[in-house]
Amino acid sequence: xxxxxxxxxxxxxxxxxxxxxxxxxxxxxxxxxxxxxxxxxxxxxxxxxxxxxxxxxxxxxxxxxxxxxxxxxxxxxxxxxxxxxxxxxxxxxxxxxxxxxxxxxxxxxxxxxxxxxxxxxxxxxxxxxxxxxxxxxxxxxxxxxxxxxxxxxxxxxxxxx
Length: 161
What we know:
Layout lengths: L1 H52 L7 E7 L8 E5 L2 E6 L4 E6 L2 E6 L8 E5 L4 E9 L5 E7 L1 H7 L9
Parallel strand pairs: 1-7
Antiparallel strand pairs: 1-4, 2-3, 2-5, 5-6, 7-8
């Protein structure tokens, strides 16, 4: 009977000794691919800002408006509160430096769709101009990220790292 108790206690001690290692492995695996993908996106955005767009001016933010190279309709006029900022043909982008605050942008005055962007100092915001096929190719603006920008401009990834 003592031998069975001794073996059981030994097994329990070994399991308790291995438990921290098992917990660490589980935590690492739970971060896994999603954690790596998020880290890669942050690195790509940082590299884009540093090497392609340039950092925002001190105390300001910047907004990158872009349009896919695959888009076939006429150029869009991007407006802020009714005033034209720029014309955006397919496969192009432009950058607006802005003071921190809230801005409203449109590309189709008739549709009345407005995209509001909260500009923060030192941040780069991405806005994609697209067409809604279901509504007769009507243009609209949507929030985007650095990965979407890379996919839309040129259709391939740039070597920027």
